[in-house]
């Protein structure tokens, strides 16, 4: 019969061996689980990095859009200095300022969006594009008396893009939203021209604004995601009515 010390020693040794075996099996299982889950972990790490990069890009695009908005407003303010005595001088300066917006700020937006699906970040840069359209069409009307078309604006943006990559092009919704805002500037311009005795020019502005509103009333009901546009239509109508009342 084994003595008590021997039995105790055997029990301790047996227990330690069992524990060691359990630990070995646990470590092996854990190692296998880690190996099996690593592709999933890598995939989620990749997705997380993509989202982080996209958010960083969005912040830069928002900043570029704000710069476009601010500098496009400066172009609009310049055009409002227009009178029958300084038309050529004012519009020449406005066109140079607009070209600077294109070369300095629109070009930065183009660089940020190259290689990106534009629709993913459209809401981040749409306000700046709308203001840019408003400034460009305002200049064009005051110089030529006509509406600057979307393809004419987009053609000026083509040289900013890498020819091997899909170029940034202003979409029809942002163009129409910018045109809707244009009527507000036309209303302010008409009031200013009447104050300076240029009734004929104010009447021309009125006809132009009225034509824009009439054409958009035909288009807006068929537009997708046009809630912003419908809101602006109400403002457009008010602007047209103000011009009509002033020249009446």
UniProtKB/TrEMBL annotation:
<dbReference type="Pfam" id="PF01997">
    <property type="entry name" value="Translin"/>
</dbReference>
<comment type="similarity">
    <text>Belongs to the translin family.</text>
</comment>
<keyword id="KW-0963">Cytoplasm</keyword>
<dbReference type="GO" id="GO:0043565">
    <property type="term" value="F:sequence-specific DNA binding"/>
</dbReference>
<feature type="region of interest" description="Disordered">
    <location>
        <begin position="16"/>
        <end position="38"/>
    </location>
</feature>
<dbReference type="InterPro" id="IPR002848">
    <property type="entry name" value="Translin_fam"/>
</dbReference>
<dbReference type="InterPro" id="IPR036081">
    <property type="entry name" value="Translin_sf"/>
</dbReference>
<dbReference type="GO" id="GO:0005634">
    <property type="term" value="C:nucleus"/>
</dbReference>
<keyword id="KW-0539">Nucleus</keyword>
<dbReference type="InterPro" id="IPR016069">
    <property type="entry name" value="Translin_C"/>
</dbReference>
<feature type="compositionally biased region" description="Low complexity">
    <location>
        <begin position="26"/>
        <end position="38"/>
    </location>
</feature>
<protein>
    <recommendedName>
        <fullName>Translin-associated protein X</fullName>
    </recommendedName>
</protein>
<dbReference type="GO" id="GO:0005737">
    <property type="term" value="C:cytoplasm"/>
</dbReference>
<dbReference type="InterPro" id="IPR016068">
    <property type="entry name" value="Translin_N"/>
</dbReference>
């Amino acid at each position: 019969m084994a003595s008590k010390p021997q039995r105790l020693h055997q029990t301790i040794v047996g227990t330690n061996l069992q524990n060691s075996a359990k630990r070995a099996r646990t470590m092996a299982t854990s190692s296998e689980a880690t190996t099996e889950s690593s592709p999933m972990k890598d995939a989620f790490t990749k997705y997380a990095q993509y989202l982080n990069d996209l958010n960083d890009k969005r912040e830069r695009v928002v900043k570029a859009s704000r710069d476009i908005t601010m500098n496009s407003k400066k172009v609009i303010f310049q055009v409002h200095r227009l009178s029958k005595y300084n038309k050529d001088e004012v519009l020449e300066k406005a066109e140079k300022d607009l070209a600077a917006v294109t070369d300095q700020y629109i070009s930065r937006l183009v660089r940020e969006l190259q290689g990106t699906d534009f629709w993913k970040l459209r809401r981040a840069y749409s306000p700046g594009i709308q203001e840019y359209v408003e400034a460009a069409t305002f200049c064009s009307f005051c110089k030529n008396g006509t509406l600057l078309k979307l393809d004419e604006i987009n053609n000026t943006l083509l040289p900013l893009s890498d020819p091997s990559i899909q170029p940034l092009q202003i979409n029809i919704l942002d163009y129409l939203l910018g045109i809707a805002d244009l009527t507000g500037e036309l209303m302010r311009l008409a009031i200013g021209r009447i104050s300076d005795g240029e009734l004929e020019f104010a009447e021309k502005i009125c006809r132009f604004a009225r034509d824009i509103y009439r054409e958009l009333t035909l288009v807006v009901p068929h537009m997708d995601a046009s809630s912003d546009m419908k809101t602006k239509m109400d403002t457009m109508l008010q602007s047209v009515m103000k011009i009509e009342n002033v020249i009446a």
